[in-house]
Design goal:
8-stranded mixed β-sheet, 2 domains, Immunoglobulin-like, 25 strands
């Protein structure tokens, strides 16, 4: 009479879970780039790599070929007003209906990098993929995205076993390598009849600083008018773009203005006095949540998110003069610091500051277009 072996819960708890024959692990931290994505960038000499390792659990399997494929893809999906489209795309719809829209649906390849690993029977193989300095950051908005993936293909064994592993990779781009970076300022000077002003505006600001500060000086004919208050607000400009045979076209920008911060000058202030005008940077924290946080600077094949400061100078009125407010706009790069990445933050000795060149042109790399489709789906809404 045969015996039937019974398993109790204690026996099942000792059963080890079945491990996959092979695993691919990449560093959890994002891949960081510093500065504009151009070869003229002084930080482009820092060769950025995607680091990871392959773990072989089944030592009996002999892999013949191991291939790593790193690829990036950008996409656009938006209902665009027909009136803003070129005639070659809008066709007969152009000018017929001011409310008509057309769906722009496009994808393109940003990069494709391959590397082959040689299997020598080791338990672990470490790897590092060198990435081009012209890659845009990972992005996902309502209408556009940039995403990166790493695919590992394995083939081998007596019965030609195949295995595929895929991981998502996050790329970040920053304009400041560390808090020790020296941020240059631009001085703007101008005059309007009885009013003269000078503003020093930083070229960039890190969201970690919590606020934006500009230095403002003015001179006014006080027998006519005086400065009543100054309002400073941050604006975010979201611009979607697409490409046709005739070139690159921009859709009308979407402008978001954050609440302005008023500044009231002292009652007795001279013409030579410097006024520091401040406005907070709206960022969500675990303690303080904001409904609309600011986003950092983004530039990719289909989307450009930039920022500017809107300075409004209000004047007191007099019987002889009732001036309109003076509105000034200045560009600024909103960025952040890499999260504890010594590989991209230059080692600085003592109190020496890191100089960052913001005079570089915005990058327009020659992306390799593999499959670009524009589906013209009319929606007269």
């Amino acid at each position: 009479m045969g015996m039937v072996k019974r398993f109790n819960s204690h026996d099942l708890s000792n059963v080890k879970p079945q491990l996959p024959p092979v695993e691919v692990h990449i560093e959890e931290a994002p891949v960081y780039f510093i500065g504009p994505a151009t070869t003229d960038n002084p930080m482009s000499h820092v060769r950025t790599r995607l680091m990871g390792h392959v773990l072989f659990n089944d030592r009996k399997l002999k892999w013949n070929r191991i291939t790593l494929q790193f690829s990036g893809k950008a996409g656009l999906d938006i209902q665009a007003p027909v009136a803003a489209l070129p005639r070659e795309l809008a066709g007969d719809e152009a000018g017929s209906n001011s409310k008509a829209t057309m769906r722009l649906d496009s994808t393109m390849s940003v990069c494709k990098i391959e590397k082959e690993l040689i299997f020598t029977g080791e338990k672990i193989i470490e790897f590092g993929l060198h990435l081009p300095t012209t890659l845009p950051a990972s992005t996902r908005t309502k209408h556009a995205y940039v995403e990166y993936t790493l695919v590992a293909n394995f083939s081998g064994g007596m019965f030609f076993k195949k295995y595929r592993i895929q991981h998502s990779v996050t790329l970040c781009r920053h304009y400041l390598p560390s808090p020790s970076a020296m941020i240059p300022c631009i001085e703007y000077n101008n005059a309007r009849e009885w009013f003269e002003w000078s503003a020093e505006v930083p070229k960039a600001v890190a969201i970690e600083s919590g606020e934006i500060v500009i230095a403002l000086r003015w001179s006014v004919e006080k027998e006519l008018v005086e400065v009543d208050r100054v309002d400073l607000a941050l604006e975010e400009i979201e611009t979607y773009r697409f490409s046709t045979k005739s070139g690159i076209h921009n859709l009308p920008p979407m402008i978001s203005r954050f609440p302005p911060t008023p500044y009231h000058p002292p009652t007795y202030s001279g013409n030579s006095e410097t006024h520091f005008i401040r406005t907070p940077i709206p960022v969500s924290t675990p303690v303080h949540r904001v409904s609309r946080p600011v986003r950092t600077h983004i530039f990719n094949p289909f989307l450009d998110i930039s920022h500017r400061l809107r300075l409004v100078i209000h004047f007191t009125t007099s019987p002889s003069l009732q001036p309109e407010p003076l509105i000034l706009e200045y560009p600024i790069i909103v960025t952040d610091y890499p999260a504890d990445q010594p590989s991209v933050s230059p080692m600085v000795g003592g109190d020496e500051a890191v100089c960052v060149d913001f005079d570089l042109p915005e990058y327009t790399p020659q992306y390799s277009i593999e499959d670009t489709t524009l589906n013209d789906q009319h929606n007269n809404g």
